[in-house]
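Internal ticket #5521
Category: modeling
Description: The requester needs a full-assembly model to guide mutagenesis choices. All entity lines are attached below as received. Residue total reported by intake: 528.
Assigned to: D.W.
Attached entities:
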Amino acid sequence: MSKEGVVEIRVRYADTDQMGVVYYANYFVWLEVARGEFFRIKGIQYKDLETEKGISLPVIEAFCKYKSPARYDDVVMIKTRACAVKNTGLRFDYELIDKKSSQLLATAYTTHVFIDKERHPVRIPDEIKALF
Amino acid sequence: MSKEGVVEIRVRYADTDQMGVVYYANYFVWLEVARGEFFRIKGIQYKDLETEKGISLPVIEAFCKYKSPARYDDVVMIKTRACAVKNTGLRFDYELIDKKSSQLLATAYTTHVFIDKERHPVRIPDEIKALF
Amino acid sequence: MSKEGVVEIRVRYADTDQMGVVYYANYFVWLEVARGEFFRIKGIQYKDLETEKGISLPVIEAFCKYKSPARYDDVVMIKTRACAVKNTGLRFDYELIDKKSSQLLATAYTTHVFIDKERHPVRIPDEIKALF
Amino acid sequence: MSKEGVVEIRVRYADTDQMGVVYYANYFVWLEVARGEFFRIKGIQYKDLETEKGISLPVIEAFCKYKSPARYDDVVMIKTRACAVKNTGLRFDYELIDKKSSQLLATAYTTHVFIDKERHPVRIPDEIKALF
């Protein structure tokens, strides 16, 4: 099974700042949407992990390299790949691309660990592991 | 005891949008800060209500009238008054003022009900009621 | 031509707060998305108004009545109607509905005036006026 | 002159997510506040750079390593250091510490270039250079 997902996000007015471009922290919100869609495409609802299994996937590290600014009303395409990290974590790599111009806007990654409700690390759930 | 509280908030770059002024939804975040400080000034930590008593105070209605835009790095003074509404709710009224120019930026109100962890309405806690 | 628009928004993790539901200020961001789509459906790009005509449509008043909480991963349907207010303004009325259950989550309105780059009120642009 | 700045930020309800801790993207908003205060302590208003000189300092890279979660109403202390990068850029390094427990919550860095209104890189302004 492919380890890639793609999602499109239209830039909201709320995303912009007075420089006339998207405020840098908001890219990380988009990455969260991209991760959620990555799971959805694979048939997994991240929500169910939390509500049914009591397992969450908080971010341990987040990085973004900004190459070209995104602007209001642009459609940003996010390509997401994921790989397992040891037995308890995941790493996502992202490419953010302007849909209209195909220009690369940013690259990013996030690393995560699975934790239970007491915030203790747990092994990667089997249905997630099966994706890799 | 006075039913007023005052808090000062410096406008963040993140608060602005491409119009060069504060994005309208962000005023409501400031109102939350103002409510929290209103309680703190009276000796009540809103956090303790939630963690110790399992009681929350969600917003039922929110309104803001925007008169003059706030800009990056401005200091906004928020004057907050509160009154009880029946036995289960509160209403807060706010004035947002530019500290430097004393200009009125906005007026706003929010109404709230106290609820328990099952989201059922509960009576106003005694220590809150004592404020009015 | 119909004066209604509909848009669907999936709740992001970023939208939630520690009460486990969507934070109240974030509804107003959704209303902005709904307004943008309202215009798009009518063949108008709000972005073009700003960049080509130098006209903006800031919010003068915003109100939301919260009836039932939205939660992570829910799809919220927003029905938007608009009407002209005098010669310089618009009013939008919104219904926010949970797509799955058809439950009414919130009702809201926002009022706006058209302004030029010096923030002076201007008459409603003809292509907008033609919508009503 | 010291190259360090310290700022304190109280966690807002809006900062939290349904995991009961601060949402990861919001740390980057705090870093912006820390940078602004870093300049202010040195006698420079970042706002004046933009409005008087037409110079901005967008983020080129942003990284955060999350060690321990911040929670609602916590006071987060951010220690900020900065250094010049070549002739056109700055790098900020941050330590985020829980004020009450002195626990390290996160470390982070951001890199920036100075640009003019056409988004072309420009040399570090003299009054900034004098800080290093």
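Resolution: model delivered.
Comment from assignee: Strands of chain B lie at 4-10, 59-66, 75-85, 89-98, 104-113.
Ticket closed.
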